[in-house]
Specification:
Helix content is 34%, strand content 24%. With 339 residues, the chain is an alpha/beta fold. It has a single domain (27-49, 56-336), classed as Ribokinase (UDP-N-acetylmuramoyl-L-alanine:D-glutamate ligase), CATH 3.40.1190.20. The strands form 2 sheets. A 10-stranded mixed β-sheet has the order 5-4-1-8-9-10-11-12-13-14, sandwiched between helices. Helix 9 (279-292) packs antiparallel against helix 10. It starts with 8 loop residues before the first helix and ends with a strand.
């Protein structure tokens, strides 16, 4: 594994560099922290009727969960990634096997409770996509201890850490703050896809990028965000609380990238969606891949938006191709917001 340099751009940015220069130096991989992975079932129907018997025309099984989807995107683009997380029981064994087939190294701490299964229902006639999400099991104290031991052993070998996903019920809201602190101690840049009480304590450790969607941001602010100005102003509060950059996605509407001093809008390309589940995760994975190639944050987000759009055209998350993504990158339009 690659051992990162003793300094990276995030630390120097806090000494006066502009945010756009604050991307990690070139590395060889991203450490993806998967506290809540899942076994993802995707069922395709030719017509789906509630309160009735529905027979699937096709069933797919894939590794899932936000951090895993992001890792699969990094791998699909030709990058290296390593997953650290949890798995349990028979569904956990299936998850391990599927990740192995995907050529993604994973160190998954065994849990007594089974890995959750999430199910996507796609109705190709009605054009609807329905996601059924199981809550993730909470690790025991001993399982957390084993996980943190593996995490601390891996952190010195990575310049970039990606963490994503809602925390399991009952787990401390300080969990991501603890991760952010460890990443900072090891001089690793952190991309964090989280919101609410799980995000707020982590901001003081200066994550390189915080990502959330507009509904999550509105819930945090406890107010509807009806205009771009309101969205940008609210996102900027997270930057002032410590994040170098804040990315707010809005499905097919323009995403906003905000720092303390800059604001940009990214207009995604028009695509015909098949299954949008995991597109936000693909965006995060694309950003991580681009940063490891030495690209600026603006160019990294451009690639990430293209990855998210490409992902929406696939049946399962993380199944994008580098060729399709390259075709879409040029269609992502940037606009600086001057207010």
């Amino acid at each position: 594994m690659y051992r990162g340099p003793s300094q990276y751009a995030v630390s120097t940015q806090r000494h006066g560099e502009s945010p756009e220069s604050a991307a990690p130096k070139r590395g060889t991989g991203v450490l993806c922290v998967a506290i809540t992975p899942c076994l993802q079932r995707t069922l395709l129907f030719s017509g789906l009727t509630l309160d009735a018997v529905n027979r699937a025309q096709r069933a797919l099984l894939s590794p899932g969960g936000k951090a895993v989807n992001a890792a699969r995107t990094v791998r699909a683009l030709g990058g290296r990634c390593h997953i650290v997380g949890f798995c349990g029981a028979e569904t956990g064994m299936q998850l391990r096997d599927l990740l192995g087939r995907s050529d993604i190294p994973a160190e998954l701490v065994s849990m007594a409770r089974p890995t959750r299964t999430c199910t996507t229902l796609i109705d190709d006639i009605g054009g609807t996509v329905t996601e059924l999400v199981e809550e993730a099991p909470a690790p025991t104290a001993a399982e957390w201890q084993a996980f943190e031991a593996r995490l601390q052993a891996l952190l010195p070998h990575f310049e970039l850490v990606l963490a994503a996903g809602a925390l399991p019920p009952g787990v401390s809201q300080e969990t991501y703050a603890r991760l952010a602190k460890l990443a900072a101690q090891h001089r690793a840049a952190l991309l964090l896809d989280a919101n609410g009480a799980a995000l707020t304590p982590a901001l003081s450790y200066a994550p390189l990028l915080v990502k959330l969607n507009h509904l999550e941001l509105a819930a945090m602010s406890q107010a509807p965000l009806k205009t771009n100005e309101e969205l940008i102003s609210t996102a900027r509060r997270l930057a002032r609380d410590g994040a170098d950059w804040v990315l707010v996605t809005q499905a097919s509407a323009p995403a906003c990238l905000v720092s303390k001093s800059e604001a940009w809008q990214f207009y995604p390309p028009r695509v015909r969606p098949l299954n949008p589940v995991g597109s936000g995760d693909a965006t995060t994975g694309g950003i991580a891949f681009a940063l490891l190639q030495g690209q600026s944050m603006l160019e990294a987000v451009r690639l990430g938006i293209a990855c998210g759009s490409a992902n929406a055209t696939t049946l399962t998350a993380g199944e994008i191709t580098a060729t399709r993504t390259a075709d879409l990158v040029g269609e992502v339009r940037l606009q600086r917001h001057d207010r």
